[in-house]
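Tutorial handout. Part one gives the primary structure; part two gives the three-dimensional structure as tokens.
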Amino acid sequence: MNTFGVNAIARYLVSARSTAGIREAFAWAKQKGLRAIALGRGSNVLFIGDIEGLVVHIASRGLVVSHKSETRAIVQVSAGEPWQGIVDWACKNGYGGIENLSCIPGSAGGAAVQ
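Part two.
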């Protein structure tokens, strides 16, 4: 689950498909006294060994236009949505301005950090 292909194994792994699932996973780790890390598509991490705690794979998907005018749109995107798919969707639907962010690997949650 990382683009470098490093053979690292997590002691615990959960794939969370909703905000509630993500919160529940981190709460579980805290209750057990485990370190927890979030992982999207694994394009901005380099594992150097196994992970003793919990890896929360952010797998939430969804894209909703919450406001639209003639010149712009506000789009809410789930953190697990593949970034390139968002760029492609925006261009296909005439929402310019994001096309220069094409070919960035990862997901929407990681793109915000970049």
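Part three, for discussion. The longest strand covers residues 51-58. The chain is about 25% helix and 25% strand.
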